[in-house]
Amino acid sequence: MAPYLESVTSFADVPVTDAGVDTVKFLEASDGLVGLFDLLGSTAFSVVQSDLRGNIVKVRTRYEATPQQSATLESLVENEKAEKKRTATEGLMWLLRGLSFTCKALQNAQANKDQELAQNFTKSYEDTLKKFHNFVVKGIFTVAMKACPYRKDFYEKLASDPSGGPPATQDKLNTELDKWLAALSSIVTRMENFYEKDGHNKGF
């Protein structure tokens, strides 16, 4: 098996057309991002993983119920507008926020190689999720940020081959990670604009 990023669906491989973001591939890539938190090796992040997984389930459940009307994320949200409860629309909104948090944290790590992950994740939290959280949840996330592993250990896990083969070089890892994050950032920005422009984030 290849190192982690090659073992999951990359956001760079999620088809994005004029019609929208491919729902199935997006959910597969989101599953891969959730697994990334296992590499952080702290139970403190279980709350983040649980939140992401729960929102993925909400979107996937809607897709499976209405596959023809939900081929893209945009069509899934548009299709659910007529429902009394827009469970998938709200779930996707929170999933995008969680993905944005993770994306910005790792982009911070890539841009500031002399900083530890705790700093990178804390800054990202302050820039993304913090404004949406109450006092209790803020406290939980503060604990999680402090529990980040050392940067060196995380990057070694990211590069290692679980099957025992040679690890990815730092250059290869940086190239793959930057590509993965750029695609994720582009999708999140696109969907955030879609929600804002058409008012899909209203009522939650």
From TrEMBL:
Keyword check for Nuclease: no
Highest taxon above the source species: Eukaryota
Key words of the record: Transport
Molecular function as annotated in GO: ceramide 1-phosphate binding; ceramide 1-phosphate transfer activity
A GO term from the CC aspect: cytosol
Pfam families named among the record's database cross-references: GLTP (PF08718)
Residues annotated as domain Glycolipid transfer protein: 21-159
Keyword Repeat recorded: no
Protein name: Glycolipid transfer protein domain-containing protein
Organism of origin: Crepidotus variabilis
Organism taxonomic ancestry: Eukaryota, Fungi, Dikarya, Basidiomycota, Agaricomycotina
